Amino acid sequence: YKLEWLKKRLDLDDGEISKIIRKFPTLLGLSIDDNLEPKLEWIGDRLSLTEEDLSDFVRKFPTILGLSIDDNLEPTLNFYIDALENEQDALALVASNPSLFAYSLENRLEPRLEEALHAGITVNAGSLRRMGQYTEDQWYGFLLKELLLMN
Predict the structure, then answer these.
(1) CB atoms within 10 A of CB 65
(2) 3-class DSSP state for residue 48?
(3) What's the sign of the alpha-carbon dihedral 139, 151, 125, 67?
(4) Residue 151 has pLDDT above 80, yes or no
(5) CB–CB of 66/96 below 8 Å?
(6) What percent of the chain has pLDDT over 70?
(7) Which three-class secondary structure state does DSSP give residue 31?
(8) Does the structure show a pLDDT above 80 at 103?
(9) In terms of CB atoms within 10 Å, which of 34, 61, 123, 145 comes out highest?
(10) What average pLDDT does the structure give for the chain?
């Protein structure tokens, strides 16, 4: 029942739903009424996604359905909004890079934002993407390169 609901809700074919389940098998244990539908509605509404965009978003990053709105999604989105000082830019950033919701605010995003600001790096969509997606070595290499360019 859940697979049929997901296929219909996100307009997925058998191959697409199979990929999603392989990437995030825990999805099968989530409640439609208590978890999946509210989360899909929040993501679609909050990020202003069309149904097609929502489907693409979940296909790119199915584990988002396992994250808590209150504990993960909303605080992380607010981090990007505050960092960019522009809600529309932040919505566009995360809508096109759903994995940006996966990074820890406390252990990765907030410390790296502080490091970037301390180094005088301009905070924009590109630098925020790097804060999330770069490994430690890549991040510190980026910071060093930026500092050398400034001097």
Answers:
(1) 18
(2) coil
(3) positive
(4) no
(5) no
(6) 99
(7) coil
(8) yes
(9) 61
(10) 94
